[in-house]
């Protein structure tokens, strides 16, 4: 807690140190990612190919978007427990309507994103704890999804499934999408002046308000952006699984939080790194794969995944103590 | 149907060609165990959940059979991966199994549809996928499952063997309202009742597959019922139903049992006391072994239909004592499915003959 508080002013005071800090924050999960990849490649050299990387990272695409959605909310100092259920709802809408009634599906997305923004407004205007409101929202999303699609089914539009299995030149699609998402996030959140205002709205809302910005407007916009990113997660997930399922992604909620924190974010608000979040999401999705390559017995796998997460996080804390 | 059979045949031709090219013994599409060489093949089990006793027994059955097959040089290696009820994790685990070079993957799917993408990837990589005890919809996968319609049919056939075509009153104990498994079993009941027009359903209760709930529910409905001649169950509820009849001082009707230890013990006790006769049937956790051998037999070049029906485990009066000895207190009957038995099951499926029963323990 104390180091995060100390880091926020450090960010604004000097030019050289935040850059170094940024690199180190992003660097640690990146190193963890590379180590895991090296272990997998040494166990199974065949994985070191276009096809191998394609299979390894295929299912990380939706998690990357879900983690970025979570990052937007954490940037405001809130937390979103409805993220995974919302992604499940989007897969149901997509599998049911997008191929036969695309206009209606898009309308559904817009209404759902608006609802997301509305909840952001509610949290701000009534000063409610986001953890309670989003927990409630998660049941609303799940309930709607189960009403729409009581049993898993439906089918993804052919173009969506084809896009997700498309094999672009040079690198697998998952890597391209991760790079694009990281780059876009970096430019908007970390580099642009509006990004600084957005982060400020989480770190020090009073100062931002005094500078003439509408904090309500910012919060609504950020929640809407989180909704859009979660929609992308649901769309890509539907393309991968080719069907809708209300219970497909509850794990995304906490994996997303893990990715944000792993990537250098902080619960205090204002401190997030899009590049780090993307790398964190890739690391977390690879952690499960690593364990099955190491043939860890099934009963140990869940615990072992936690140990990996703990080790990387502990390394990050130690590192940021050092750089201070 | 005809389309899936066609693809099955096309696949078989390819398998035959490759097997005759590489294996010395060649492949056999005939009856019995296919002897194609699978000693270099690896089979993995992707399991959606490992957190209850049924699944634990299921994993153990697979591991034991796998270890035996490795020792007998029938396969090179087996592995089990479980996801914690997370479908996306199970999908990525299947992608990993593809990369790890397994030749066959048996899948107990956490979702009927959400693994379709990953299963398709596995098929495209030339891997044999056998889904069992779940309705995976991807057409390239082989499916090993029970025919739930046969459950009520077997129950009613037994009853008509005892009572003949005389008019009889039947009480149905169902599982849980709104449950998919219960719905399928009930549909089978409705279908099977059409073949026995003289039987009249007089009541229907939800016993939640639990002795205590079934006892309470049956006790509640009994005063309103005429004489009951037979009770149809879904397993786990037979003991409670019997207790309800006893408590109401009514004669015990034919209550079909569901392979639970308490049910078999009660049946034996009543049989010893008064010659009471019934029979018992149910699913077995070791269905994972059936999926394992089906996968091995496909790799060995056997002709296997896309849907392989597994027989329910039936216990008849002569075998009651032998089975009862094998069940732990409070447990469910489990059985071993050796390779020859699974080959017979596959043959019966191909020829559309009655499925072989699971032999009683010695």
Overview of the structural elements:
The complex is a heterodimer of chains A (324) and B (362). By secondary structure, chain A is an all-alpha fold. Chain A has one domain (25-36, 45-323): ABC transporter involved in vitamin B12 uptake, BtuC (Orthogonal Bundle), CATH 1.10.3470. Chain A is built from 15 helices and no strands. Chain B is an alpha/beta fold. Chain B is elongated. Chain B folds into two domains: 2-133 and 284-315 and 331-351, Response regulator (Rossmann fold), CATH 3.40.50.2300; 149-282, Rossmann fold (3-Layer(aba) Sandwich). In chain B, the strands form three sheets. In chain B, strands 2-1-3-4-5-11 form a six-stranded parallel β-sheet, sandwiched between helices. In chain B, helix 3 runs parallel beside helix 4 (116-124). Chain B is built from twelve helices and twelve strands. The A-B interface holds A 44, 46-47, 52, 55-56, 58-60, 62-63, 151-154, 161, 164-165, 237, 240-245, 247-252, 285, 288-289, 292-293, 295, 297-299, 301-302 and B 47, 50, 59, 79-82, 84, 86-89, 91-93, 95-101, 111-118, 120-121, 137, 180.
| CATH domain topology of the largest domain in chain B | Rossmann fold
* Most strands sheet of chain B: 6 strands, parallel
- Principal-axis shape of chain A equals globular
What is the assigned CATH homologous superfamily of the largest domain in chain B? Response regulator
- What number of structural domains do the residues of chain A give? 1
DSSP summary: helix tally of chain B: 12
Radius of gyration from the alpha-carbon trace of chain A, in angstroms: 20 Å
Mean pLDDT of chain A: 86
Which class of secondary structure composition applies to the elements of chain B? alpha/beta
């Amino acid at each position: 807690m104390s180091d995060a508080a100390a880091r926020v002013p450090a960010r604004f005071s000097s030019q050289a140190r935040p850059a170094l800090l940024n690199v180190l924050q992003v660097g640690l999960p990146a190193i963890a990612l590379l180590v895991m990849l090296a272990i997998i490649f040494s166990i199974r050299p065949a994985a070191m190919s276009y096809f191998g990387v394609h299979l390894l990272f295929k299912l990380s695409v939706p998690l990357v978007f879900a983690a970025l959605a979570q990052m937007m909310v954490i940037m405001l100092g809130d937390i979103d427990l409805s993220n995974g259920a919302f992604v499940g709802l989007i897969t149901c809408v997509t599998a049911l309507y997008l191929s036969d009634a695309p206009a209606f599906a898009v309308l559904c997305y817009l209404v759902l994103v608006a609802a997301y923004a509305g909840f952001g407004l509610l949290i701000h205007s009534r000063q409610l704890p986001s953890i309670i409101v989003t927990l409630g929202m998660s049941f609303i999303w799940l309930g709607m999804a189960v009403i729409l699609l009581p049993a898993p089914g439906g089918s993804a539009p052919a173009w969506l499934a084809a896009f997700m299995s498309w094999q672009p030149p040079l690198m697998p699609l998952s890597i391209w999408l991760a790079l694009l998402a990281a780059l876009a996030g970096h430019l908007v959140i970390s580099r642009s002046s509006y990004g600084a205002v957005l982060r400020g709205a989480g770190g020090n809302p009073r100062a931002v308000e005094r500078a003439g910005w509408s904090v309500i407007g910012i919060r609504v916009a950020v929640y809407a952006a989180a909704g859009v990113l979660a929609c992308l997660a649901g769309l890509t997930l539907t393309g991968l699984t080719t069907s809708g399922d209300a219970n497909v992604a509850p794990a995304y909620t906490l994996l997303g939080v893990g990715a944000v924190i792993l990537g250098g974010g902080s619960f205090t608000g204002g401190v997030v790194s899009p590049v780090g979040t993307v790398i964190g999401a890739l690391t977390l999705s690879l952690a499960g794969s690593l364990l099955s390559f190491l043939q860890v017995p099934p009963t140990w796998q869940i615990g072992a995944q936690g140990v990996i997460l703990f080790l990387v996080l502990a390394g990050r804390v130690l590192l940021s103590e050092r750089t201070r | 149907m005809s389309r899936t059979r066609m693809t099955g045949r096309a696949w078989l031709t390819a398998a035959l060609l490759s097997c005759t090219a590489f294996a010395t013994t060649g492949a056999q599409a005939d009856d019995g165990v296919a002897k194609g060489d699978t000693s270099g093949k690896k089979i993995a089990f992707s399991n959606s959940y490992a957190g209850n006793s049924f699944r634990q027994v299921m994993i153990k059955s697979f591991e034991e059979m796998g270890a035996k097959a490795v020792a007998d040089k029938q396969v090179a290696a087996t592995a089990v991966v479980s996801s914690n009820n997370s479908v996306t994790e199970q999908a990525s685990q299947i992608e990993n199994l593809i990369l790890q070079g397994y030749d066959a993957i048996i899948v107990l799917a956490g979702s009927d549809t959400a693994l379709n993408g990953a299963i398709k990837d596995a098929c495209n990589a030339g891997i044999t996928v056998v889904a069992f005890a779940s309705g995976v919809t991807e057409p390239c996968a082989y499916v090993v499952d029970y025919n739930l319609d046969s459950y009520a049919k077997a129950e009613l056939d037994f009853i008509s063997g005892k009572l003949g075509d005389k008019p009889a009153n039947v009480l149905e104990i169902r599982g849980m309202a709104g449950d998919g498994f219960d719905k399928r079993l009930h549909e089978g009941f409705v279908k099977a009742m059409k073949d026995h027009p003289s039987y009249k359903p007089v009541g229907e209760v939800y016993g939640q597959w639990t002795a205590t709930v079934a006892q309470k529910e049956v006790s509640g409905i009994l005063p309103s019922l005429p004489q009951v001649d037979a009770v149809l169950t879904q397993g786990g509820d037979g003991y409670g139903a019997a207790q309800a009849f006893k408590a109401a001082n009514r004669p015990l009707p034919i209550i079909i049992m569901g392979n639970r230890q308490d049910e078999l013990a009660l049946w034996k006790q009543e049989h010893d006391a008064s010659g009471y006769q019934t029979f018992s049937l149910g699913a077995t956790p070791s269905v994972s072994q059936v999926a394992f051998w089906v996968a091995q037999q496909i790799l060995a070049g056997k002709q296997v239909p896309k849907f392989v029906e597994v027989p329910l485990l039936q216990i008849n009066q002569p075998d009651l004592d032998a089975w009862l000895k094998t069940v732990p207190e409070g447990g469910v009957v489990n059985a071993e499915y050796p390779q020859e038995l699974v080959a017979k099951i596959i043959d019966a499926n191909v020829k559309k003959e009655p499925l072989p029963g699971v032999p009683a323990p010695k």
